[in-house]
Protein backbone atom coordinates (compact mmCIF):
# COMPACT_ATOMS: atom_id res chain seq x y z
CA UNK A 1 0.00 0.00 0.00
CA UNK A 2 2.74 2.46 0.97
CA UNK A 3 4.57 1.71 -2.28
CA UNK A 4 1.51 2.70 -4.35
CA UNK A 5 1.10 5.87 -2.30
CA UNK A 6 4.77 6.76 -2.79
CA UNK A 7 4.41 6.25 -6.55
CA UNK A 8 1.39 8.60 -6.59
CA UNK A 9 3.39 11.22 -4.67
CA UNK A 10 6.36 11.02 -7.06
CA UNK A 11 4.19 11.05 -10.19
CA UNK A 12 1.81 13.69 -8.75
CA UNK A 13 -1.20 11.50 -9.49
CA UNK A 14 -4.72 11.79 -8.17
CA UNK A 15 -5.97 8.62 -6.54
CA UNK A 16 -9.22 7.38 -5.06
CA UNK A 17 -9.11 5.84 -1.63
CA UNK A 18 -11.55 4.08 0.62
CA UNK A 19 -10.83 5.46 4.07
CA UNK A 20 -12.02 4.33 7.48
CA UNK A 21 -12.75 7.46 9.50
CA UNK A 22 -12.45 7.96 13.24
CA UNK A 23 -16.16 7.18 13.73
CA UNK A 24 -15.71 3.80 12.02
CA UNK A 25 -17.47 4.94 8.85
CA UNK A 26 -15.88 4.25 5.45
CA UNK A 27 -15.76 7.02 2.87
CA UNK A 28 -14.54 7.31 -0.70
CA UNK A 29 -12.16 10.20 -1.33
CA UNK A 30 -10.26 11.53 -4.32
CA UNK A 31 -6.92 12.88 -3.15
CA UNK A 32 -3.57 14.16 -4.36
CA UNK A 33 -0.99 12.69 -1.96
CA UNK A 34 1.76 15.11 -0.97
CA UNK A 35 4.07 13.45 1.58
CA UNK A 36 4.43 10.95 4.39
CA UNK A 37 4.74 12.24 7.93
CA UNK A 38 5.49 9.24 10.13
CA UNK A 39 2.55 6.86 9.81
CA UNK A 40 0.33 9.51 8.23
CA UNK A 41 -0.23 10.79 4.70
CA UNK A 42 -0.58 14.49 4.01
CA UNK A 43 -2.77 15.07 0.97
CA UNK A 44 -5.05 17.52 -0.74
CA UNK A 45 -8.57 16.09 -0.68
CA UNK A 46 -10.42 16.99 -3.87
CA UNK A 47 -13.63 15.62 -2.37
CA UNK A 48 -13.52 18.05 0.59
CA UNK A 49 -11.49 20.71 -1.29
CA UNK A 50 -9.07 21.06 1.59
CA UNK A 51 -5.76 19.69 2.91
CA UNK A 52 -6.18 16.55 4.99
CA UNK A 53 -4.01 14.10 6.93
CA UNK A 54 -4.87 10.39 6.69
CA UNK A 55 -3.69 7.56 8.93
CA UNK A 56 -2.09 5.11 6.51
CA UNK A 57 -3.44 2.11 8.45
CA UNK A 58 -7.00 3.41 7.84
CA UNK A 59 -6.64 3.48 4.04
CA UNK A 60 -8.48 0.34 2.98
CA UNK A 61 -8.10 0.55 -0.82
CA UNK A 62 -6.34 2.66 -3.46
CA UNK A 63 -7.21 3.15 -7.12
CA UNK A 64 -5.55 5.43 -9.65
CA UNK A 65 -7.85 8.08 -11.13
CA UNK A 66 -8.12 7.78 -14.90
CA UNK A 67 -8.75 11.09 -16.65
CA UNK A 68 -10.56 10.66 -19.93
CA UNK A 69 -10.47 13.26 -22.66
CA UNK A 70 -13.08 13.72 -25.36
CA UNK A 71 -12.06 12.46 -28.80
CA UNK A 72 -10.47 15.12 -30.97
CA UNK A 73 -9.11 17.22 -28.10
General description of the model:
This protein is mainly beta. It has one helix at residues 2-10, and strands spanning 15-20, 26-37, 40-45, 50-55, 59-64. A five-stranded antiparallel sheet has the order 4-3-2-1-5. The model has no long low-confidence stretch (mean pLDDT 92).
Structural Rg: 13 Å
Runs in which pLDDT lies below 50 for 5 or more consecutive residues are: none
What is the percentage of strand-forming residues?
over 45%
- Shape category: globular
- Architecture, CATH level 2? Roll
Topology as a string of helices (H) and strands (E): HEEEEE
Q: How do the strands of the widest beta sheet line up side by side?
A: 4-3-2-1-5
What is the topology?
Blueprint: H1 2-10, E1 15-20, E2 26-37, E3 40-45, E4 50-55, E5 59-64
Antiparallel strand pairs: 1-2, 1-5, 2-3, 3-4
List descriptors.
73 residues
Could you give a quick summary of the protein structure above?
The protein contains 1 helix and 5 strands; from the N terminus they run αβββββ.
Amino acid sequence: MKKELQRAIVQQQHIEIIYLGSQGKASKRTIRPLEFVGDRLKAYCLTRRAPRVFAIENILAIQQVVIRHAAGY
